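May I ask you for just one protein sequence along with its backbone structure tokens in two labelled lines?

_____
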Amino acid sequence: MSFTSSGFSDWKNTLRALAQHNSSRFHSECLYVVQQQSKPSVMARIDTVTKQQQEQRRQLLMAEVSSLRYLLRQGIAFRGHTEVDGNLFQLMQLRSTDIPGLDQWLDNKKYLSHDIINELAKEMALIILRSICVEVNLKVKLSVLYVDCFYAL
């Protein structure tokens, strides 16, 4: 404390004074405060961890969606007599060797509920149906254009 309030003037005993200052309680408290100020806040750390978990869950959900898409596209049933015997569960279990965290995702079973899988399959079917409707609508407009051009001649 003497360094901060009165300054330093005993230059011939500098090393002893610095050693005494370094071992003082005041110096230790100041170092602690500076270290705490350089750390991110608790809210920033919680935010970082939350974003990492969200990104990991997003990747795992996309693995589930791509597995379900594969089975639906091939016309393969995705459920079995039991949850563990189902093709979706078995395919995702196989993929868990390549995708980190997928094994815990499968153990959780929260995201493999019938409702979630049915909703994902329904959304995929609606996307396909919309794209077919857009394609058919485009062809109908082109046909009408051709017919109008033919009658105009």
User: Anything to note?
Assistant: The two ends are 102 Å apart (CA to CA). Residues 113-153 form one domain.
